[in-house]
User: Fold Ribosomal RNA large subunit methyltransferase H from Rhodovarius crocodyli.
Amino acid sequence: MGADRRRRHRHPSVQARSARDLQPREDVGRGQPCLCGVKARLIAVGRAKAGPEAELFRHYNARLRPPLELQELPEGQGSAAEIRRREATAILAAMAPNTLLVAMDLGGKAPTSEALSTLTQRWMEAARPIAFLIGGAEGLDETVLTRAGHLLSLGPLTWPHMLVRGMLAEQLFRAQCIRENHPYHRAWRPG
Ligand SMILES: C[S@@+](CC[C@H](N)C(=O)[O-])C[C@H]1O[C@@H](n2cnc3c(N)ncnc32)[C@H](O)[C@@H]1O
Assistant:
């Protein structure tokens, strides 16, 4: 990293920061399920078992101020279409009507981390409850995709839904660091 770029990361407001700031903070976000003042939940199909995927989510979610409130929904039964339809009914019932729904979907827009940071700023300014959504093994029903205010992709590859929880939490943490000019995010790319 060149000196110019290093200087850019050392914004006066973050000069005193250290790696310790990346540790989970016990004193923030208590009882406030929100993303910087706006309610943020993660609605996810399936129940996580203890293991590396659950640990990955826990690791990054604990670094969000405040953390996402996780709401797990049971997996649907039946054919693939029935599963999606049943899960959609539960998903739509879990949200207040004014919720800004950000659905994780391969077919959505795949922003850069910087663009995602800008998007999160915009979502916060909308001052509506925010819910991120991760589908189950059969994906999300059309009715849910239509209801979503934003379809967010992590790229065209299909990832296991339990892994997507941790990947989303990491990207939201990265977005938080970009908004705060924290050096966790290194923007450098080869020219
Ligand atoms: C195993 S995937 C479902 C695959 C399904 N065939 C589809 O195309 O949606 C389970 C869930 O993980 C999330 N997911 C998986 N890969 C993703 C990606 N690249 N970007 C965004 N979300 C993804 C989505 O919420 C998806 O509904």
